[in-house]
Specification:
By secondary structure, this protein is an all-alpha fold. 64% of the residues lie in helices and 2% in strands. It has helices at residues 8-38, 85-126, 135-146, 150-177, 179-203, 209-230, 237-252, 263-289, 298-312; strands spanning 69-72, 79-82. The protein starts with 7 loop residues before the first helix and ends in a 28-residue tail after the last helix.
């Protein structure tokens, strides 16, 4: 039996909706496998990588002195210190732990930069402002001030103030709650604010001010978490390009001393650039195949991803600031690889 003409639009709309949901399902699937690959349980264990071989027969009981062995060399007044096997294993264990931490932080930097690129394009086409960085907002605020658009001036001032409040909230929570700050306090705030911003614009597509404040506050926390956890400014692509240029010039210049390119530094910078470009490209693609997610869905999805990521992160596994000798929060080093 042939369907009536009145049924065709309904079938067409349902087909379009099903096609539009495929990219979202694919993205969630990819993020699930990516997060599983980032898990510390998938990395080689630092406790089982190096095993001390038996030094003597098990039948012979020996007592190993707790101090290194010292022998006299043939040269007068020169002594040779032999390190015990336990000290060598301790050094290898520390090196392995450092390598695992860097690998984990590099993957996190890619993920954070990807989400920043995804958000930046969407923020620009939806709200005409940025919540991930305040440079563009400061420029637009100055332009509005010159053109006597004082309502816009007030808008950008409050957006910048909200971002600063988010950064301050992160720092206060870190000092107050330490290991519980990310999992128990900041994760629900970030998730709720991102989802709430989507709900407000879904109910009223002219609503802009309150969602902007919510998003800016959330990204003040997100950027602080990225810097503290990865030791890198994961939202500054220009800075990553500048560091790569400086590394190349210092390597080729005899005046600079032909400084070798730090492997970890250049890998971290490339990770930020690559992650951001992939995220921006994904945002453009998603806007073309599922434009309805511009009104509702994208920031809610980011809120779920960030909330799950914050709950999953193990600060002590990544080298928390309270475990360091100086006991200070992150001060990023010159290569933006780790915190001092």
């Amino acid at each position: 039996m042939m369907s009536s003409a009145g049924d065709r639009p309904a079938k067409k709309s349902s087909t379009t909706a099903s096609l539009a949901m495929k990219p979202l399902l694919l993205a969630l699937l990819l993020l699930f496998y990516t997060a599983d690959g980032f898990s510390p349980t998938t990395l080689p264990s630092a406790t089982t990588r190096f095993t001390a071989p038996p030094l003597v027969s098990p039948r012979i009981r020996t007592v190993t002195p707790p101090f290194p062995t010292i022998t006299r060399t043939s040269t007068p007044c020169h002594w040779r210190v032999h390190k015990s096997p336990s000290s060598r294993l301790t050094a290898l264990h520390a090196t392995a732990s450092k390598q695992r931490q860097f690998l984990h932080k590099k993957r996190l930097a890619i993920l954070f930069a990807f989400l920043t690129g995804w958000a930046d394009y969407l923020l620009f086409i939806k709200y005409r402002f940025f919540s991930t960085m305040m440079t563009g907002n400061s420029m637009w605020m100055a332009a509005a001030l010159v053109e006597s658009r004082f309502r816009d001036v007030a808008f950008y001032i409050t957006v910048i103030a909200s971002y600063i409040a988010g950064v301050a909230t992160f720092r206060r929570a870190e000092l107050e709650f330490r290991e519980k700050a990310l999992n128990g306090f900041l994760a629900p705030i970030v998730s709720a604010f991102l989802i709430w911003s989507d709900v407000l614009t879904w109910r009223d597509n002219t609503c802009r001010w309150i969602p902007a404040l919510l998003l800016s506050f959330a990204w003040g926390i997100i950027n602080s978490v990225g810097s503290e956890v990865t030791g890198n400014l994961i939202f500054v692509v220009t800075g990553a390009m500048t560091r790569i240029s400086n590394m190349l010039v210092d390597r080729l210049s005899s005046t600079a001393g032909n400084i070798p390119i730090p492997k970890e530094g250049i890998l971290m910078s490339f990770s930020v650039i690559l992650g951001f470009i992939l995220g921006a490209g994904w945002s453009v693609f998603l806007n073309h195949v599922a434009p309805q997610m511009k009104a509702f869905g994208s920031f809610a999805a980011m809120g779920v991803i960030y909330g799950g990521l914050f709950l999953w992160l193990d600060r002590e596994e990544l080298g928390a600031w309270w475990l360091k000798k100086n006991g200070k929060l992150c001060e990023i080093d010159s290569d933006e690889v780790t915190c001092q």
